[in-house]
Specification:
Elements lengths: L3 E4 L8 H15 L6 H19 L5 H15 L7 H11 L10 H11 L1 E6 L3 H10 L8 E4 H4 L6 H10 L8 E5 L2 H11 L2 E5 L11 E3 L2 H11 L2
Parallel strand pairs: 1-2, 1-4, 2-3, 4-5, 5-6
Helix pairs in contact: 1-4, 2-3, 3-4, 8-9
Bound molecules: magnesium ion.
The site of magnesium ion has 7 residues, from loops.
């Protein structure tokens, strides 16, 4: 019986790319830097690459938040900007912008009626907690495991161990992890030795042969199968 649900948040419950886009254009405008879609896409790539490096333990969040703008501005020849101040403003502004996917809060509510729901997310505590509240998830959650507070990022085994230690009555056969990332969520679920469902609205990447859901209804259907 699956009744411990571990849910990733960004790009699983929240439209993080939309939040990132709005934050990017608003912050750069504030600092007088002109940007267009092409520049945003490049920023997204740089940011993604650095988060993957973070998952591999090659950088830390403090460096990442500044490095992403240093790399971008060097590429587009922007000089004379206080990058430390800009990245601090960008980072802080994340709290103000939150876009849950359609049906996300309803999905969390449905899961909460079938068991206990926990958020498992890589990110800053103050941002993720604000998003949990703003998205309307808080009433349905039993807890949130946030990498900054734990001290380790997914897919570090110690993140999974913090979850095991922090969920009352934890048992591997009762738990299932749901997330959009193969490198952080799937890898961490594997290390934790528990079932995993990939949330992939655009389909699973080539080579992935585990459970995959295109929407929340499909997640619930898969959970039904896991219980039979
Ligand atoms: Mg995610």
């Amino acid at each position: 019986m699956k009744d411990i649900f571990l849910l990733d948040m960004d790009e699983t419950l929240l439209d993080f790319k939309r939040t990132e886009r709005e934050n990017f254009f608003a912050t750069l405008q504030k600092f007088g830097v002109k940007a267009d879609e092409r520049i945003f896409e490049r920023f997204h790539e740089i940011n993604d690459g650095l988060w993957k490096a973070l998952e591999r333990g090659e950088t830390n969040r403090e460096k990442l938040v500044v490095t992403r703008f240093e790399i971008l501005f060097a590429e587009i020849n922007v000089t004379g900007v206080d990058i430390a101040a800009l990245s601090a403003a960008f980072f802080a502004n994340y709290t103000e912008i939150c876009h849950p996917f359609a049906g996300a809060a309803e999905f969390v509510k449905t899961l909460s009626e079938r068991g206990r729901v926990y958020i498992v997310t890589n990110g800053a505590g103050f941002i993720q907690k604000r998003h949990i509240a703003d998205a309307g998830f808080a009433p349905y959650l039993r807890g949130a495991f946030i990498s900054e507070e734990i001290g380790f990022n997914k897919p570090d085994l110690r993140f999974a161990q913090a979850v095991e230690a922090g969920v009352e009555g934890y048992a591997r056969e009762r738990a299932v992890w749901i997330g959009d990332s193969l490198t952080s969520d799937c890898a961490c679920a594997k290390k934790a030795g528990i079932d995993f469902i990939l949330y992939a609205p655009h389909g699973a990447p080539k080579g992935y042969c585990g459970a995959v859901a295109k929407n929340y209804s499909e997640v619930l259907a898969i959970l039904g199968h896991l219980n039979t």
